[in-house]
Write a structure and sequence with these properties.
single chain, 188 residues, alpha+beta, Hypothetical Protein Tm841, Chain: A,domain 3, six-stranded mixed β-sheet, two-stranded antiparallel ribbon, globular
């Protein structure tokens, strides 16, 4: 699993390795069910930087009209800085990159995870859900499961990640199995 938004060597922090954000979530969730999670890939955007307590200052700075594409889990800068855009425009870029990488066949079923970074209002996350679902539907992909909330956060960062996981084989049954944790509860 890796972050498609981070192409080797082309982001601002100088680190050339790929990073993962919320792609780990479905994988860790499925490990608890003794199975391997299907292929998935995330894409991330930050609207504000993160202040790591040990540093006491933001990891990077953004103007009021900017956002950072391809940020890391610990608030690392992304691969490029762009002007603020609508949820539809952001989803077009993020989901477009995921579809290019994942290459799902029309008719595929997927799990869509829209993850907030900690300071993103839920209403903004649901805007991303609607935009991402529309793009996937237009590509002939069926979102049969989705999860929206701040599950993998970067403290006080505003932004979101989009993860799309193919629901092949037993993946849907594993996702639907009863779960009772502090963060997730269904079927139990």
């Amino acid at each position: 699993m890796y972050d498609k938004a981070l192409r080797d060597g082309d982001f601002l922090s100088g680190n050339t390795s790929r990073r993962s954000k919320s792609a780990k979530f479905p994988a860790k969730f499925s490990v608890s069910r003794y199975s391997q999670w299907p292929k998935n890939t995330p894409n991330c955007v930050a609207l504000t930087p993160c202040i790591v307590p040990a540093a006491g200052r933001p990891n990077f700075t953004l103007a009021d009209n900017e956002m950072e594409m391809g940020v890391g889990i610990h608030g690392e800068p992304g691969r490029r800085r762009v002007s603020l855009a609508s949820a539809d425009a952001i989803a077009d870029e993020l989901v477009g990159a995921i579809l290019n990488d994942l290459a799902p066949k029309p008719g595929s079923e997927v799990l869509l995870l829209i993850n907030g970074f900690g300071a993103t209002p839920l209403i903004q996350l649901y805007l991303m859900v609607n935009s991402a679902k529309r793009i996937l539907q237009d590509a002939g992909i069926t979102v049969t499961r989705f999860l929206t909330g701040s599950y993998v956060t970067a403290l006080d960062m505003a932004g979101a990640s989009v993860t799309v996981s193919l629901l092949e084989g037993q993946a849907k049954a594993l996702w639907d199995a009863p779960v009772h944790t502090a963060a997730l509860r269904w079927g139990a």
